[in-house]
Specification:
The chain is mainly alpha-helical. Helix content is about 75%, strand content about 0%. The protein has helices at about 5-10, 20-45, 50-70, 80-110. Helix 2 runs antiparallel to helix 3 (about 50-70). The chain is flat and about 55 Å long.
């Protein structure tokens, strides 16, 4: 019993866009750089505490963007828009849930004191 040649291919047609090896390598190198620089700033005692905290925060935000682009392949192309908007909506719901929970807990604590 032989399968139609396109039958095996049709099962994989909707797997989505995958990155090339080069894009994964670029993402990995950027991720390593964005990790090593803050690590060096923490280990070096010549950098002030405030500058270190600001730099770590900025490098963390940039690293999130690098991971979203190079590893999760989220973009605003016609194929990537649904996944990107789903991710952004999920992130919004999580931020609201956590943020409002913390607000409720601090408000309850303030009312009890």
């Amino acid at each position: 019993m032989s399968q139609h040649p396109k039958a095996g291919h049709a099962a994989h047609a909707d797997e989505g866009k995958h990155g090339s090896v080069q894009s994964y390598i670029v993402g990995f190198i950027l991720a390593v750089i964005l990790t090593v620089i803050p690590f060096w700033m923490v280990m070096d005692s010549n950098v002030s505490r405030k500058a270190t905290l600001i730099a770590i925060s900025l490098f963390a935000i940039v690293q999130i963007v690098v991971h979203l682009k190079y590893f999760l392949h989220l973009d605003f192309s016609t194929e990537g828009k649904p996944n990107t908007f789903s991710f952004l909506f999920t992130a919004l719901v999580i931020v609201m849930l956590v943020g409002l929970s913390v607000w409720i807990i601090f408000s309850a604590n303030a009312l009890m004191m």
